[in-house]
Amino acid sequence: MTQSHDQPAAEVDLALLRRSQTGDFDAFEQLVSRFQGRAYGVAYRILRSPQDAEDVVQQTFLSLIEHLDTFRGESSVASWVLRIATNFALKILRKRRGLPTVSLDEGNESYASIPHPEYIAAWREPPDALAERAEMRELLDRAIDELSDKHRVVFILRDIEGLSTEETADLLGLSISNVKVRLLRARLQLRERLTRELGDEATRVEPDHRHDVTPSDEKAV
Amino acid sequence: MTCEELLRALNEVIDDQSALALYAEFADHLAGCNPCQLVVDNVRKTIQLYKAGEIYEMPPGFQDRFRDALRAKWKVKFPHLSS
Fold first, then answer.
1. Per-residue pLDDT averaged across A80-94, rounded?
2. Which of B49, B55, B68 to mutate to test the interface with A (most CBs of A within 10 A)?
3. Which of A80, A152, B32, B36 would suit a FRET pair with B6, their CA atoms being 20 to 30 Å apart?
4. Which ipTM score applies to this complex?
5. pLDDT at position A97, please?
């Protein structure tokens, strides 16, 4: 069977999965090729170890073989694979910390704990120009490594992997409000770190957290 | 709306394209507050940078071991089929 180039990716994935379920190893290998890079990427970002990320990739697809028949189609194949990979990565993360459970639920966080922006300035260059710089990878890695595990995982799943808040909450065993607060904290901490490196000092402004702008104001204070 | 209040709603401002149209207080505050405009812009660019990030390549030696393991598992799952 050949896939049309116009066929949406999700349909192609599902067709390969259905063929795999009948014992078609070629179809399964195609599925692996389509997802192994993403599984490796999410595992590496969570675990920061090539060896551990390799283990996650292997465990993910071995698990897929074992549980091929359990896929019911409620989610996309991509979500299913990502969920399995993320869960294996989280298990390794918890094991490193000597903790028994997969969940990173360590209690609710509140908006009161969100740090206020301190260094506020325009960036000197746009993201597409920055992304091409060799030194950016090291800066981005350092900044994301400085996040706590629970904040880093939410940021990876929401903003890098593109899961919805609901999908992220379900995967991590968190409430939706907890995901939102953790995401906000991660975003602001990364913003602060990156802006201190990438910001234009000449454009720096001082924050005033009590600054109140209402429609009746003629001028901002 | 204060900067503090906008900060708490930052996820909605970033993630929901319609937030500024739906919630006049967001748009009004941003129109009158340069620091908040910069913070919102910084966060958007931060996310863009990470999304555009490098693809992590698996080590070359891993593929052979990995595929061998998959084949072995496949034979256990489908013993009556040839690979």
1. 92
2. B49
3. A152
4. 0.85
5. 77
